[in-house]
Amino acid sequence: MSSNLVEDETQFYCKAKKYWKNIPATVDGMLGGYGHISSIDLSGSKKFLQRFLRDGPYKIGTLHALDCGAGIGRITKRLLLPIFKTVDMVDITDDFLSKAKAYLGDEAKRIGNFYCSGLQDFTPELNRYDLIWIQWVIGHLTDVHLVEFLKRCKAGLQPNGIIVIKDNMTQEGIIMDDVDSSICRDMDVVRKLIRQADLSVLAQEKQENFPEEIYNVFSIAMR
Ligand SMILES: C[S@@+](CC[C@H](N)C(=O)[O-])C[C@H]1O[C@@H](n2cnc3c(N)ncnc32)[C@H](O)[C@@H]1O
C-alpha cells in the first residue's frame, strides 16, 4: 500500500502545501517546468472527452464541471470552460486561485465557486457535476484519503456524470517524491483504489507525444 510510504501524514500534507506556495502562478509552474507540453496535454484530454460528448449511452451533460487541484485554471480555461456552462475550481493554494481570476479573463465570470481547500477535506456538492476532472494531484493524497475523496466525488455526480483522473503512473511500484511531497503509483494500485471507491472504469487511455523522460500519463474515466 502506498500510504505506507507516507510515514508522517501531517508532514506529508504540510510539506506539499509549502512546496506549492513557493511555485510561480504560471502554466510553467503548474507543470514543473514543462509548460511547453500543456497544449499536447489539453488536445489529448479533449480527444479523450469526446467519446462522452457524442450521442450514446455514455453521453454526459454539459452544465457543471469541477476542476480538482485546478491551480491557476490551465485546464479550466482551455478544456472545461469551452464545453461546460459553469466550472467550479478547488485547490489548496490560495495564490493560484487568486491568479485564476486574471488568467481566465472575462470567462472567469463563468466560475461558480473558487474553493480553497485540500481535496482530503473537500466535499463536492451532492448530485451536481456532469464531470469531475482530477489531474496531476492524486499523488498528494494518501490512499485512504484518495478513496474517501473519490467516494465523495461519486456522490457529487449527476446521474450520468463521470469522474476523470489524469495522472502520472509508474511502470511498476510506488515512488515517493520528497521535493513536492507526493507519491506516484502504478496503474494496478490506482485501479485498486478506484474499485475501493466503488467506481467502475469506463475508459482508459495513455497520453501520446509526451517527452520520453517523464512518467507515463494516463486518463481514466469512471462513474
Ligand atoms: C501539478 S499542479 C497541477 C495543476 C492543474 N491540475 C494542471 O494540470 O494544470 C498540482 C496542483 O495541486 C494543488 N494541490 C496540491 N496538493 C493539494 C491537495 N492536497 N488538495 C488540493 N490541491 C492540491 C497545487 O496547489 C497545484 O495547484
From TrEMBL:
UniProt KW S-adenosyl-L-methionine keyword: yes
Keywords, ordered alphabetically: Methyltransferase, Nucleus, S-adenosyl-L-methionine, Transferase
Subcellular location: Nucleus
InterPro entries assigned: MeTrfase_NTM1, SAM-dependent_MTases_sf
GO molecular function: N-terminal protein N-methyltransferase activity
Signal peptide start-end: none
One GO cellular component, as annotated: nucleus
Pfam families: Methyltransf_PK (PF05891)
GO-annotated biological processes: methylation
Superkingdom field: Eukaryota
E.C. number: 2.1.1.244
Function: Distributive alpha-N-methyltransferase that methylates the N-terminus of target proteins containing the N-terminal motif [Ala/Gly/Pro/Ser]-Pro-Lys when the initiator Met is cleaved. Specifically catalyzes mono-, di- or tri-methylation of the exposed alpha-amino group of the Ala, Gly or Ser residue in the [Ala/Gly/Ser]-Pro-Lys motif and mono- or di-methylation of Pro in the Pro-Pro-Lys motif. Required during mitosis for normal bipolar spindle formation and chromosome segregation via its action on target proteins.
Sequence similarity: Belongs to the methyltransferase superfamily. NTM1 family.
UniProt name for this protein: protein N-terminal methyltransferase
Organism (species): Leptobrachium leishanense (Leishan spiny toad)
Taxonomic classification: Eukaryota, Metazoa, Chordata, Craniata, Vertebrata
Gene that this polypeptide is encoded by: NTMT1
